[in-house]
Amino acid sequence: QVQVVESGGGLVPAGGSLRLSCAASGIFFSINSMGWYRQAPGKQRELVAVITSGGITNYKDSVKGRFTISRDNAKNTVYLQMNSLKSEDTAVYYCSADVTRGTNGNVFRYWGQGTQVTVSS
User: Fold this and answer.
1) For the residues of 22-58, what is the DSSP string, one character each?
2) Measured CA distances, 23 to 84, 100, 112, 118 (Å)
3) Dihedral (Cα; 35, 36, 39, 44), 10-degree rounding
4) pLDDT per residue over 52-92, tens digit each?
């Protein structure tokens, strides 16, 4: 079993900053990519940012230059630094971890429970 737990959400004013963190724990060989997704009310879940085990990153266009994803492989933890927040960033943010559990190389994506980010205007 693998557990993925994110934290750091909250209520912030427009233009403010927030840092989310997410840690994976359990029995596994390695973690491949880790990412952040979000889901706003009435909208589908969308990719915000992803980072590979080698540190290669990709971002949704609307957050480029404002958000930064990073990871600490020793701690099995991924972070999302969010700056210059806008009201349209309001959503539940979910962490994902692509985990290799066995010698056969099978990978399964685990999800965190979500953390609410609300940006007031």
Assistant:
1) EEEEES-SEEEEEEEEEE-TTS--EEEEEE-TT--EE
2) 25, 15, 9, 22
3) -30
4) 999 999 999 999 999 999 999 999 999 999 999 999 999 99
